[in-house]
Amino acid sequence: VNNDNVRGGYLAANEIIKHNYSTVTVITGPRNVSTFADRLEGFFKCLSENSFPIERVKIVECNSFEERDGRMAIERHLRTPGNREVIFCTTDWLAKGVMEALQDRKVSIPSEIGVVGFGGLDFCKMTSPRITTVALNPYLLGRIAVTMLQELMDGNFESKGVVFVEPFLMQGETLRREK
Description:
The chain has 179 residues and is an alpha/beta fold. The chain is 39% helix and 17% strand. Strands 3-2-4-5-6-8 form a six-stranded mixed sheet, sandwiched between helices. Strands 1-7 form a two-stranded parallel ribbon. The longest helix has 16 residues, at 34-49.
């Protein structure tokens, strides 16, 4: 039982396209980690299907996926605030660090730059502005896993298999209003 990270990446890109952003910076954890590779796969699949010019996408790969990495990504790679119109972070922790670094620079979110996170962590509802994020469903993930395990323990081997739990978009305030 796992999160459908490919679908989540797709949802993030779709939301960015829907809001008419023309350039994207992706800030991600290590791309050799399947979680991040899957999120990027879905993201680029959606961009491709919608004929979004890939040359307008910049990828910043971090050593990990924590808040400090999001901060450092902005400090090292975003020279001109507003040059990149939206930033997609493959974790909410990265998004939180990005927002803090942008706010330190007095960059207005979302009017100058948009931000999208991934995870749906509780703190996304408490930031100012609230983070728009692809939310996972850990409760459903756990419930399915326990049900499958119980059935396997009861001898029902038809419960073997792979299940992906669908993420959803949690609207926040970090994307500009649609035009």
